[in-house]
Amino acid sequence: MGIKWDEFFITGDPLILGSQIAILLTMIGAVAGITYLKKWNYLWTEWLTTVDHKKIGIMYIISAVLMFFRGGMDGLLMKAQTARPEMEFLNSQHYNEIFTTHGVIMILFMAMPFLIGLMNVVIPLQIGARDVAFPQLNALSFWLFFSGAMLFNISFVIGGSPDAGWTSYFPLAGKEFSPGIGNNFYAVALQIAGIGTLMTGINFIVTILKMRTKGMTLMKMPMFTWTTFVTSILIVAAFPIFTVALALMTFDRLYGTHFFTVSGGGMDMLWANLFWLWGHPEVYIVALPAFGIFSEVIATFSRKSLFGYKSMVFSILGIALLSMVVWVHHFYTMGSGPAVNSFFSITTMAIAIPTGVKMFNWLFTMRKGRIKITSAMLWALAFVPCFVIGGVTGVMLAMGAADYQYHNTLFLVAHFHYVLIPGVVFAVFAGLYYWWPKMFGFMLNERLGKWHFWLFVIGFNVTFMPMFFLGLNGAVRRAYTYSAESGFAPLFMLSAIGSIVLAAGFAVFCYNIYWSIRYADRNISSDPWDARTLEWSTASPVQFYNFAKLPEVKSLDPFWHMKKKNEGLTLYDSEIEEIHMPSNSWLPIYMGVIFGIAGFLLVFEWHIGSAVAAIGIFAGLIIRSFDYNEGFHVKKDEIHRIENAWRKTEGEVHDHVS
Amino acid sequence: MKKMLLSLTAILPMLILSGCNMVVFEPQGPVARSITELINWSLIWMLLVVVVVFGLFGYIVWKYREKPENKDYEPPEEHGSTLLEIIWTGIPILIVIALTIPTVKTLYALEETPKGYEEKEPITIHVTSADWKWIFSYPEEGIETVNYVNIPEDRPVLFKMTSASTMQSFWVPALGGQKYTMPKMETELYLVADNPGSYEGQNTNFNGRGYADMKFEVLAQTEEDFNQWVEDVKDTAPKLTEKEYEGLLKPTHLGRLTYSNTHLEWVNHADPHSKAYTNPELYRGHGYQGKTFEEDDNYKNENPNVIEGHGKESGHDASEENHGGGHSGH
Description:
The complex is a heterodimer of chains A (about 650) and B (about 325). Chain A is an all-alpha fold and about 650 residues long. Chain A has two domains: about 1-40; about 40-585 and about 630-650, Cytochrome c oxidase-like, subunit I domain (Cytochrome C Oxidase, Chain A), CATH 1.20.210.10. Chain A is about 65% helix and about 0% strand. Chain A is globular, with a radius of gyration of 25 Å. Chain B has helices at about 1-15, 30-65, 80-110, 225-235, 240-250, 315-325, and strands at about 125-130, 135-140, 145, 150, 155-165, 170, 180, 185-190, 195-205, 215-220, 255-260. The longest helix of chain B has about 35 residues, at about 30-65. Chain B has three domains: about 1-60 and about 85-110, Helix Hairpins (Orthogonal Bundle), CATH 1.10.287; about 125-265, Immunoglobulin-like; about 280-325, no CATH class.
């Protein structure tokens, strides 16, 4: 096949050589460690083959934190390179690769899995179900995501990173201008991860429609469940577009077709349209669940039910609908004409209306409340002002004619970081501090949590606020350097300093996880925040079958009212019945591995090898279709034992709300 | 309170925004000025939103925070208020309308000769972006420049823009907004400079290794100076040949160049059937290199795939075509 081994590993850059060595040592260390501790069996049976939504959620979250680290390093390298004019820390090629991977990783391999992880952990609990509708499919979703993420991540040490921006605009991303295989990684890895995401969307739509416990009508669902539901619909509506676009990209790059090329009658603008037809809904796919998390956190810590529940639901639906008809605002400057640009200006600005409604509803949820300022609540509070800045600059960018001056400048970059960091990152932090005790049975340290919060929020503002002004002064995005005469230097320097503070915040977060795992009090209540929704009515950490008896819902905030009226909280022996649960399966991880191998070979354009590996994919599908494992039943004694263990301690646990 | 202060420091720069000397707020021509006015109009409304929400936020968080003295306070059950919700849906709608009207007006105005300049004969300049340089052709004057463009002041300039390679974006912030340049496509942009002066222009759409340095100078001159410059160029500048032009289009950085003819004589990249001058071999970098493909409509092929032949040539001709393709690629 003519494999060019000399081009296989990326060489000649000390940063990359360092990473290669570090990756190798980490892998050896991990394998040696697990072998030494004899944990292979535990890892295989408890995690790698699990179909338990909570464990899958935790694996999503762990991957997301790792990807956050990777994407964050990329961001820091970019900030270091632009800290001074004419810096020679990174060359332009290296810088191009780094901002490309930063964007892809942060959106697709950090924000998405973080939220999907929280959705996995929380949604079945919130709707009073024992798992998602298709547990094994859920595991497959995770392993395909993980496989895609790993395939994308190795690109910088093997083969070369994609370097055409996270948007991978054609014709630049085509073979005509990017003959290296870097962009094959983009096309193939995102395809694999995208299949997983699409299946997650389907899974959660079915779960939420079919698996709600008795009495939970649609309009009694918690807000996070609502947003997850609408997000899942958006995933199913938008991801197939991306799937098709990536497939066409793959054909162009691997087989010489002309969908998006300059030559042969290709149409580069088609890619931009398809990309943003998926890409803009994608923004709301990550933003909506985040809004749901804030709704839960704000209601809990204000000790009030959500203000304007109905209008919140309608706003979410409105945002979702509008998000499908705004994609052209990403390229007003393409010259589509004033009528098209006017239409998309109006639809885009219209998104501000339901978003504004939500904002005021959150504010009025807090009004007349008793606001307890915990780490989780701090994130929700900081979200309000920061996101407002992101929102108003978004309206400014939405105005087509004005956008001619903002487009592709750092003003735009500042805007979307002001939307995505408060809108998504603050939310996942809020969600993590909030649901951590439910996942693990101990809390994250509040004191470290506050350090994490203040460093991160201050760092974030110092990093991105200057970029608004740089943009208005003519600084463009994705430029690896700028001249000393431009006068950009002081604000770029300020921004770089901010990014270090931001990184320090993230470091405290990691330390907090470490500290809490080692030292945090294990003897806590199953409802440490005095919360309102069903997930808090069961044990922490949650027993594998979630609920011994499925709860019955009579109103919004069901657990709150159960506590108030003291009903439905006790479990009587007579109510215990055998519980049917799904069995573990090796197929999802097998599919992840085989997809990874086939994808890797395809990236390197070794078509025969890839086709051979693809046989493995079909083999997996066939095995699955002959899989008659019906799961297993949990015996009454075991339920008895598990329920007694956590219900007994009630009353003598440490209350951690303070 | 700390958060309040933090938020305030965040919007303070917004307040002094219009006072700063940022290029977008110092328009040097009517086109840029109309956009700046639109931006200022939006800033007023956005500032209003920020002040209201920040104020409400600070007030609510401060007033209803948990304190030792309100430990026993149990918040009321409250589900919403139709009146309030109508208010905060209605006001944003009004704001959006207030922003939409001037936006749409400006969008339409930007596609035409700027107001007040309708009488003045616009000068047409063809812009061809390539990796990583800007080529300006003056078809009426019969001259061509690279990486700089001279224009007469106070006279509308119609840029007819296209690209010989990737998609780029033509932006002279002091004079007006930007627009993409795309291969086999033509976009148009009107700009006017009020006064003589030098303005920086650049590509804003990422297009590979040389992107950051893809800048050009716009020099606005008085009518006499401009005419004089055109005459000088015609007298002194060399002629551009297709062979030399092919060299220009390679992915390189060039300084300023001047020619006394234009490349439009043999190719206009805006034409959907124009030949492609790209060569993937020149873009090879580090990392594993993939397969590249031979293109029928590459200019190096003797019988480019243009419509002219009506497509009924014999098999003999077709095989010759394949031969012609042999020397590029791989």
